[in-house]
Specification:
54% of the residues lie in helices and 11% in strands. The protein has 109 residues and is mainly alpha-helical. Helix 1 crosses helix 5.
């Protein structure tokens, strides 16, 4: 398989695609929903809450953290996660601007 050739696209297009990708798995959506619901940092109870194995949860947390939608703090032997509110707000602005586009011409095709 060839490279994704992301350099062919604008920074904005790549950013939108990365945000969309993170919402492309229901486990990541579930993790984010849980973090918003508890409105606090979570330290390890995601396995019971989400119902997936710890390595799977860890992989999804890694993806969310790489994109900056969550942040983690080491507390003893565990890592506690919460929503990164600044990056969440930025993601919302970018995605809302993209999704708020409308087609003005209704008789195409």
């Amino acid at each position: 398989m060839g490279l994704a050739k992301t350099e062919m696209f604008t920074d904005e297009q790549n950013e939108i695609a990365l945000f969309a990708k993170v919402f492309g798995h229901p486990a990541r959506v579930s993790i984010l929903q849980h973090l918003f619901k508890i409105n606090a940092c979570v330290c390890g109870d995601l396995v019971n809450e989400i119902g997936l194995a710890q390595p799977t949860i860890s992989q999804h947390l890694k993806e969310l953290k790489l994109l900056g939608l969550i942040k983690g703090n080491v507390e003893g032997t565990s890592v506690c996660y919460c929503i990164d509110t600044a990056n969440w707000s930025k993601m919302k602005r970018v995605m809302l601007q993209f999704l708020d586009q409308d087609v003005s011409k209704t008789d195409c095709c």
